[in-house]
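Morning!

This is the sequence you dropped in the shared folder:
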Amino acid sequence: MKVVATHDGHFHADEVFAVAIMRLIYPKVCYVRTREPELYKKADVRIDIGGRYDPRSGDFDHHQIGRAGMRPNGIPYASSGLVWKQFGKRLAHNRVVRDRIDERVIQGIDAGDNGVSSFTVRSARPYTLFEVIDSFNEEWVRGRMTQEAAFRDALAFACGLLAREIRAAEYYVKSRSVLMALIRIAKRSGSRFIVLRDYKIPWQEVVIEKSDLLYVVYPGSSRRDWRVRVVPMSMNGFRSRATLPMAWAGLKGQALARVTGVGDAVFCHTGRFIAGAESRQGAIRLAEIAVQSLEKRR
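The structure's back. Tokens below.
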């Protein structure tokens, strides 16, 4: 792979991330930004330009009549999705990882480029990657740098983000088996919480989808304390399956220790979704008390 071509002028997230995918696979690949057919036809791969989608010839455009297909969920493919579908396996060998990157990163970009809303809460529209990349255009529109320099900055950002997301997805896949084992143990024992050894384990998605657990106990990021966290009802909201006891709300240190009977209790958030203790055993005891409190109220 030697040269990738895309259009010049105002750039968008779909071609920036498509070129980023190629750059991560082929670090020495060059790119040319042009709308001149005699120039882009010489490239090995054409992205978001040329009016054709054919992986065999290296064409990944979606602007032609009929476009380039859509996913089962209704989100049409843009150039980033087409390139990821073709080349993603060279960056992520695991299919689950590839699908996760498509869902977390690529689909939102493709939706934005095709004018399709991927959000259901229209009154609180999130700030999207499509808009993040568009903000780089302002640097040359306002005359603070050249257009090509702005594109290079956007490309560097996209490469870094995509590489991090791939690593995160790979870690998610590795962590899932650990979480499923803990969930099975909790189910057999009748426990309503699990205890993690590593604060970095991305537990929310698996615990929400695969269990009826109420709490998760895990070490704090400083490793000097332990936390008890209420399990959310979904990944996209703030409602939780349970709360911590009302009497704990907003208490810290000795005040919380007196109420709970846990000598090393540290704090409980006023929202009653998280509390902490200095030790693992202290946090486990807080979780046990929280479960008992819920059972008494039922």
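Headline: Residues 147-189 form the longest helix (43 residues).

More detail when I'm at my desk.
O.
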